[in-house]
Amino acid sequence: MKIRKILVSQPEPKTDKSPYFDLAKKYSLQIDFRPFIKVEGVSVKDFRQDRINIAEHTGVIFTSRTAVDHFFRICEEMRICVPDTMKYFCISESIAFYLQKYIVYRKRKIFYGKSKFEELMDLITKHKEDLFLLPLSDIHKQEIPEALEKQKIRFNKAILYRTVSSDLSDLKNIDYDVLVFFSPSGIKSLLQNFPEFAQDTTKIAAFGPSTSRAVKEAKLRLDIQAPRPNAPSMTMALDQFIKKHNKNGKE
Q: For 6-36, what is each residue's pLDDT tens digit?
């Protein structure tokens, strides 16, 4: 059977220049988008159980816009006035500029890297006198707190939001030729929403080593993997697979 229908477990692209739309046009595909996971903020009640005093920190480390949103949300809900002297350390310039949504940018002490946490660490280590707050999701990379500990940076990890499975009950059944995943949480959501899911001829595509590992641990078959040297993006990996698969008519 040729591949005709693909479900991508992410929100639909906001621009019509997405490579997914180019792929759909190239192979006459139906590509649907549906987030398998969503982010929920931790309640003030739950946050208080961690006994973290935001006001005693002199710096905040942001690794995503979501972390920015939930830091200022919890501050507002707890009626915490963030002092003008607070230092902000952002993993990228775009996240630093996003702070303008909440603060007067030009009047604050803001530092940012290019995109990698290692670059930001170089800036953080110059401020070892500070006590940092690290807002995170309940599911996060351990490399970041481990890097701070290794450099003996004083910090507190604050779980301000959680990644949970979306309700996919309206899909009724997964009638797609290819399912595309980008995180282990997406695989978890698939099995939670469809506990009787049988892969059969459905192809599963996974981006990143942790997602690929989650597919195999769930005893599912991994058919398409990215990134690879000849396919650094998921759309490139899909393109190569579909070209070969549809030409043969079957694998």
A: 999 999 998 888 999 999 999 999 999 999 9
Q: Which residues pair with 33 in a beta bridge?
A: 8
Question: What does the alpha-carbon distance between residue 120 and residue 114 come to, in Å, rounded to a whole number?
Answer: 8
Domains by residue range for the chain, with CATH: 5-36+166-248 (3.40.50.10090), 40-163 (3.40.50.10090)
For 11, list phi and psi in degrees, rounded to 5: -65, 150
Cα–Cα dist 224/176, whole Å: 15
Residue 6: closest CA among 244, 189, 161, 176: 176
Distance CA 189, CA 79 (A): 34
CA 233 – CA 49 distance, rounded (Å): 41
Can you list the alpha helix ranges (DSSP code H) found in 7-131? 19-27, 44-48, 65-77, 93-98, 117-124
Residue 249's SS3 state is: coil
Helical ranges in 117-228 per DSSP H: 117-124, 143-150, 184-193, 209-217
Residue whose C-alpha is closest to residue 112's, from 150, 65, 80, 169: 65
pLDDT of residue 4 exceeding 60, the answer is yes
